[in-house]
Amino acid sequence: MDFRSHSLHQTIVATHLILAVDDDDDNLLLLTQALARADRSFLAAPDGKTTLTLAQTRQPNLILLDIRLPDLSGFDVLHHLRRNVITAKIPVIAVTALTREDDHRKLLQAGCSDCVTKPYLLEDLERAVDRCLSALALSYPSDSDFGSTKVFGAAVV
């Protein structure tokens, strides 16, 4: 790994907030332990309504979303996220037991950036997170590109 990509990786790890969502306590614990092991900052949510509230108020950089939730399906959560101007561009990785290729296609069409199938290898989850956060880091210009103007999402303040 060259110095620039290593620095980018350190910046990504240090500055991004990830929202992990799963209604199963064991699965949520596994997700959060994997994030902690990778020195990621994270929040956890056990259901769709909490996910939507945290996405709106905390504006995470990435959401790891279980699709089978007790109150709202992951598809419903995606629909609400994409219709809200504040949360519309937050990347979402589906972490799901749905294994059919057609299910993954539907998740990508619904607005997921990637899919990780349960049970998963921690390395596969980490690679998916790294891909999304790296793409996010490359898609936003740095503050130096705008002098003293700060850019947050699509709004210039």
TrEMBL record:
InterPro entries: Bact_response_regulator (IPR050595), CheY-like_superfamily (IPR011006), Sig_transdc_resp-reg_receiver (IPR001789)
SUPFAM superfamilies with a match to the protein in the record: CheY-like
4-aspartylphosphate PTM positions: 66
Keyword Ribosomal protein: no
Residues covered by the Response regulatory domain: 17-133
Pfam families noted in UniProt: Response_reg
UniProt protein name: Response regulator
Annotated keywords: Phosphoprotein
Taxon lineage: Bacteria, Bacillati, Cyanobacteriota, Cyanophyceae, Leptolyngbyales
Superkingdom in the source lineage: Bacteria
PROSITE patterns per record: RESPONSE_REGULATORY
